[in-house]
Design goal:
Helix content: 40-55%
Order of helices and strands: HHHEHHHEHEEEHEHEHHH
CATH topology: Rossmann fold
Structural class: alpha/beta
Number of strands: 7
Distance between the termini: 62 Å
Strand content: 5-15%
Strand order of the largest sheet: 1-2-3-7-6
Bound molecules: thiamine diphosphate
Number of domains: 1
């Protein structure tokens, strides 16, 4: 028994090392460069505000979950903020967003209100899904936000279908879709991306590689060093970039959006980051090596960008205090509104199930 324990602990150590090594390789690989994007101080502050708001809303959701008020699970965006915000920031209002469960930041950039976010988390009758579907699964057609389809990767062919419809309608719109390192190993990924590539659809797929799919490390999901290398098999551009660097994510997405709008077809972008919390609030993530979390903590996307903006003189103590005060008030108001809203009524369960 001792021997088998020893063996399994050795196996775990090897796995940890492999995961750490792969992360380092990802970070060091030089990507083909894309044109610089000149961001104004205002735009940089907007990026920061969205990331910070994501973090604060995330904290509020986790607090509310611990108070037993969230109906269902709570899925944190800790570590994924720069990917979600930097990418959605490259979109226009007529573009389509198909986010996954770590993309609260993309919802916010696309214009989602805090009221709707908390109503959904608390499963109230006046939420976007009227108390139906999971906490993080809500669409808002008015903002062109669709999804989130729970069955991982099933959303990709759907989003590709929307890209096809949009192209046929000559909307000049782009579809931005997200998937995790785990979710991208499902067959739908291949079918969707292949069709988008062959038909040169205005489609962008971001793989948010945050090192774990629930408790499975990236190294046990794919033997490839870079998930973006798959792009070669579809004949489309593919990039692997630092997913903690919001301006870099934005720059590569601006290029992908440009290609999509010009009719050049899809782009695959893998962003490397770390899921800093458990899969959901009920998961203590004890399977994640402590050292990994300590290393990634130094690259926290929100704190990192705050340091950069302070260094550049864009963010000051006074501005930061103002932002924090406004956000706290906004979140408290939206949460209070949700908490005092009625739950969905059982007798309404069959209403609004089908589109008119
Ligand atoms: C086909 C399918 N299998 C399992 C699940 C349950 N599930 C939801 S999210 C998730 C982990 C996804 O990992 P990843 O794609 O890497 O995204 P992450 O949560 O790490 O951001 C699992 C197993 C699901 N929703 N769909």
């Amino acid at each position: 028994m001792c021997l088998s324990l020893l063996k399994s602990s050795r196996g775990t150590k090897r796995e940890e090392l492999r995961t750490l090594r792969m992360t380092v390789t990802h970070q060091k690989t030089k990507e083909p460069s894309v044109p610089e994007v000149k961001l104004s101080s205002q735009q940089r502050m907007d990026l920061y505000r969205y990331m910070r708001l994501t973090r604060e809303v995330d904290n509020a959701i986790l607090r509310t979950y611990k108070q037993g008020k969230v109906v269902g699970g709570a899925y944190s965006s800790y570590g994924n903020e720069a990917t979600a915000v930097g990418s959605a920031f490259a979109l226009q209002s007529h573009d389509y967003l198909f986010p996954m469960h770590r993309d609260l930041g993309a919802h916010l950039v696309k214009g989602q209100s805090l009221e709707h976010i908390f109503l959904q988390q608390l499963a109230r009758g006046n939420s976007l899904t009227r108390g139906r579907d999971g906490t993080g699964h809500y669409a808002d057609p008015a903002l062109k936000i669709y999804g989130n389809v729970s069955h991982l990767a099933a959303m990709i062919p759907m989003a590709v279908g929307v890209a096809l419809a949009s192209k046929m309608r000559k909307e000049n719109a782009v579809v931005m879709n997200y998937i995790g390192d785990g979710g991208c190993n499902v067959g739908d990924f291949h079918e969707g991306l292949n069709m988008a590539a062959v038909m040169k659809l205005p489609f962008i797929l971001l793989i948010e590689n945050n090192q774990f799919a629930y408790s499975t490390p990236s190294s046990k999901q794919s033997a490839a060093q870079r998930l973006s290398d798959r792009a070669l098999g579809y004949g489309i551009p593919g990039y692997t970039i630092d997913g903690t660097d919001v301006e870099k994510v934005h720059r590569y997405c601006v290029e992908a959006v440009r290609c999509a709008r010009e009719g050049k077809g899809p782009t695959l972008i893998e962003t490397i980051t770390m899921r800093m919390h458990g899969h959901s609030a009920s998961d203590d993530a004890s399977y994640v090596p402590k050292r990994m979390l300590e290393d990634w903590k130094k690259k926290d996307p929100v704190e990192k960008y705050e340091r950069i903006l302070r260094n550049d003189g864009v963010l000051t103590d006074a501005l930061l205090q103002d932002i924090e005060k406004k956000m706290t008030r906004q979140i408290e108001d939206a949460l209070a509104h949700a908490e005092t809203s009625p739950y969905a009524r059982g007798e309404d369960a069959t209403e609004g199930v089908f589109a008119p």
